[in-house]
């Protein structure tokens, strides 16, 4: 691959992914300070928080459905066309949230419409990730799949930095009353501009070599391809279960470290919202740098070994994390976040996508990676802040149950990845290609 095409592929994958996650994290950033008081209005602050976090979790629950719909399109029509649809869908839903009237203005219709837009966001992100991943890995040289596959994962911390950074600047630049009244809406509406940029970049890219080869093979054999969702459970049922389980440790702890901790820090650790935003942003910049380093390293030491190291580290860190943040010392809160997001999490997330894509044959790869990723995310991702909030309330503010939850996600993922044995689908395709 020449350098120009390499830059084009990686930038299209990274920028599109970053925009999608920017849209997604906007809700997470203000769930516990805006949506709980202006949309999910109740007489019980705990219930309002739970409902706001449910709005976060809801989009995760719908993501597998979005994954099935758009992965079917991606495996039948093409990766590029699907990514244009998902990016557009995400941007329109995000702008819609920014324009929504509050509960005080239209009553119960406000939270219902907010949840509807979250469902649309969930459908969009459900199909986006698999396409962005395959855009990178199916163009990648064999010995650089780990590096290429890490680029869509960089979109996660980049999107988080953009979302949290936008809100941090707004809270710094305008009075609190103004921010709470209408200032929080600006990033949601601004998303439309980013979406236009992403669409222009993706429009100029061709379909992936693997998809083009798959089309030619089908035409040469005059094959009528079956539904990818049917084929995936016929040929790769074990891989779907394994990848779903592997996702647990990557997603559950991440939302504890970046979303739950914001509300927890403000209400329990005596630190400001602005401080939590700034500390998570600063750490996430370093996370972004670490992800491609870990991805490239996996091309040398192996995907499975890297993942197991990260999962064990997460298991060990579950209790020390809360021990450190519960000191109430701002510097130590930053240190705890740094260890979690820069040291422990990158070896897991950097190779997750490549490991998933190598598990499925190219005919159903979009569907396979999407199902595994989104099912795992639905079970252990968006529900993590909700579960943590519930556990804290049930156990009188104790963080021990939340640490046990992190341990559980690590154990599930360790069992799943240890079950990966033998030659994966990508290795088999490479071997057959070399034989020809």
Automatic annotation (TrEMBL):
Coiled coil: none annotated. Residues 9-425 form the Major facilitator superfamily (MFS) profile domain. This is Metabolite-proton symporter. The chain crosses the membrane at residues 21-40, 46-71, 83-106, 112-135, 147-170, 182-201, 248-267, 273-294, 306-325, 331-356, 368-388, 400-420. InterPro entries: MFS, MFS_dom, MFS_sugar_transport-like, MFS_trans_sf, Sugar_transporter_CS. PANTHER family: SHIKIMATE TRANSPORTER. It comes from Jeotgalicoccus aerolatus. It is found in: Cell membrane. It is a multi-pass membrane protein. It holds the Pfam family MFS_1. Keywords: Cell membrane, Membrane, Transmembrane, Transmembrane helix, Transport. Its main location: membrane. The keyword Calcium does not apply.
């Amino acid at each position: 691959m020449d350098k120009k095409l390499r830059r084009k592929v990686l930038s299209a994958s990274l920028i599109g992914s970053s925009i999608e996650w920017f849209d997604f994290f906007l809700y997470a950033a203000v769930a516990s300070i805006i949506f709980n008081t202006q949309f999910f209005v109740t007489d019980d602050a705990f219930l309002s928080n739970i409902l706001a976090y449910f709005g976060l979790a809801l989009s995760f629950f719908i993501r597998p459905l979005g994954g099935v719909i758009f992965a079917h399109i991606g495996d039948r029509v093409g990766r590029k066309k699907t990514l244009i649809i998902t990016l557009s869908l995400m941007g329109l839903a995000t702008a819609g949230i920014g324009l929504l009237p509050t509960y005080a203005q239209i009553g119960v219709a406000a939270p219902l419409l907010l949840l509807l837009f979250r469902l649309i966001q969930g459908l969009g992100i459900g199909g986006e990730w698999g396409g962005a991943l395959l855009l990178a890995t199916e163009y990648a040289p064999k010995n650089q799949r780990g590096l290429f596959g890490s680029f869509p994962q960089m979109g996660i911390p980049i999107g988080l930095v953009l979302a949290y950074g936008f809100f941090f600047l707004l809270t710094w630049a305008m009075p609190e009353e103004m921010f709470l009244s209408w200032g929080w809406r600006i990033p949601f509406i601004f998303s439309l501009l980013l979406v236009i940029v992403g669409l222009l970049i993706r429009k100029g890219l061709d379909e992936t070599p693997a998809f083009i080869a798959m089309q030619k093979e089908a035409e040469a054999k005059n094959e009528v391809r079956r539904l990818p969702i049917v084929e995936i459970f016929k040929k790769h049922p074990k891989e779907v279960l394994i990848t779903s389980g592997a996702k647990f440790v990557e997603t559950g702890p991440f939302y504890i470290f970046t979303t739950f901790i914001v509300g927890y820090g403000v209400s329990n650790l005596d630190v400001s919202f602005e401080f939590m935003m700034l500390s998570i942003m600063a750490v996430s910049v370093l996370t972004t740098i670490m992800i491609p380093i870990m991805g490239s390293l996996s091309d040398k030491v192996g995907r499975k070994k890297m993942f197991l190291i990260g999962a064990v580290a997460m298991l060990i860190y579950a209790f020390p994390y809360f021990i450190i943040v519960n000191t109430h010392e701002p510097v130590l809160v930053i240190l705890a976040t740094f260890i979690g997001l820069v040291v422990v999490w990158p070896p897991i997330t950097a190779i997750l996508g490549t490991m998933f894509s190598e598990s499925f044959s190219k005919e159903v790869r979009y569907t396979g990676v999407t199902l595994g990723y989104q099912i795992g995310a639905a079970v252990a991702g968006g529900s993590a802040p909700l579960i943590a909030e519930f556990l804290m309330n049930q156990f009188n503010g104790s963080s021990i149950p939340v640490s046990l939850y992190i341990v559980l996600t690590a154990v599930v993922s360790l069992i799943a990845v240890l079950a990966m044995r033998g030659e994966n689908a990508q290795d088999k395709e490479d071997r057959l290609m070399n034989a020809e």
